[in-house]
């Protein structure tokens, strides 16, 4: 069920038609970043106050990684929950500022510490460079749990869009010695299949924000060659098995080219015995959680993600 397009989402779409200077795929990655950075403040609401925010650099496999650490109001001083948040942006755009609002919501609503890495972007750094930065940030959270005030057994991973893709892959990697264990994965309209053949790419190819042409442009900048498309670390829906992955919350926007692959991923997790809470946001468009100034559902989606995370913890006790 699609539902009528949300009034706030419609307003955002109308603003995009009037104010976007160019489509991302018609310019360079650097031009896309300039346009994206200029647009983000127009869509985000007033940023919530959190207990504290710290910017620092950590060691990564290919050089330092800038991270932003948020402590939410009410977060325990010791052995509290921790969240690795991976921002969206098609692996090409996005940074610590573009998703600051979402990280603050998670920190306060989850009474937790959130760590968001400014992972390397394509095409300057193609797959798996950004993924390696994300995995390194998870390792930092586990090894520095005492300093961060978190319990290494209570670390979840979250992300939106391309960040949801990275979060899903990090959660799969955590099943083995490739990474510390993950307690939950919170995926907001994730990209799970780089083949881009799902029917939602046809239904919503134009007119709903993220277009099929833009998504191809993002994908083609991220992968090294066509073989990467079938690699489960790019397309987690293509993993042989999803068994023993962390319990998952999956948010789907009904008017989104990624809707079908996100739904398919949630169903595959369920089929493979993973606990899943899937929430379809009828009337919403891709990226709506980053549009809190106009879309009331934005903060509510984070509220529901946190509630699911808590329910997973309660079930594990």
UniProtKB/TrEMBL annotation:
Domain of life: Bacteria
This protein's UniProt keywords: Hydrolase
Domain Alpha/beta hydrolase fold-3: 83-289
Signal sequence interval, chain numbering: none
InterPro entries assigned: AB_hydrolase_3, AB_hydrolase_fold, GDXG_lipolytic_enzyme, Lipase_GDXG_HIS_AS, Lipase_GDXG_put_SER_AS
Residues at the active site: 161
Pfam family, one: Abhydrolase_3
Similarity field: Belongs to the 'GDXG' lipolytic enzyme family.
PANTHER family recorded: AB HYDROLASE SUPERFAMILY PROTEIN C4A8.06C, ALPHA_BETA HYDROLASE FOLD-3 DOMAIN-CONTAINING PROTEIN-RELATED
The protein, known as: Lipase
Origin species: Rhizobium tubonense
């Amino acid at each position: 069920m699609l539902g009528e397009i949300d009034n706030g989402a419609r307003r955002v779409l109308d603003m995009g038609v009037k104010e976007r200077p160019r489509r991302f795929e018609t310019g360079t990655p650097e031009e896309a970043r300039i346009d994206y950075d200029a647009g983000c403040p127009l869509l985000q609401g007033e940023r919530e106050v959190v207990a504290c925010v710290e910017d620092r650099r950590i060691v990564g496999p290919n050089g330092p990684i800038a991270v932003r650490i948020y402590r939410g109001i009410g977060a325990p001083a010791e052995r509290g929950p921790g969240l690795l948040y991976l921002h969206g942006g098609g692996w090409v755009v996005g940074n610590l500022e573009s998703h600051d609002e979402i990280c603050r919501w998670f920190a306060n609503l989850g009474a937790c510490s959130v760590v968001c890495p400014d992972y390397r972007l394509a095409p300057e750094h193609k797959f798996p460079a950004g993924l390696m930065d994300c995995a390194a940030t998870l390792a930092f959270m586990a090894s520095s749990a005492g300093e961060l005030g978190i319990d290494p057994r209570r670390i979840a991973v979250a992300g939106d869009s391309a960040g949801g893709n990275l979060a899903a892959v990090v959660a799969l990697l955590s099943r083995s010695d490739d990474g510390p264990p993950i307690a939950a994965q919170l995926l907001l309209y994730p990209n799970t299949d780089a083949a881009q053949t799902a029917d939602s790419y046809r239904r919503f190819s134009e007119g709903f924000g993220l277009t099929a042409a833009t998504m191809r442009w993002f994908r083609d900048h991220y992968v090294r060659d066509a073989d990467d498309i079938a690699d489960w670390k790019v397309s987690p829906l293509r993993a042989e098995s999803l068994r023993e992955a962390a319990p998952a919350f999956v948010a789907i926007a009904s008017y989104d080219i990624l809707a079908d692959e996100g739904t398919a991923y949630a169903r595959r997790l369920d089929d493979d015995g993973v606990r899943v809470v899937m929430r379809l946001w009828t009337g919403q468009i891709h990226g709506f959680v980053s549009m809190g100034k106009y879309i009331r559902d934005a903060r509510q989606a984070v509220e529901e993600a946190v509630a699911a995370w808590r329910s997973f913890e309660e079930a594990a006790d």
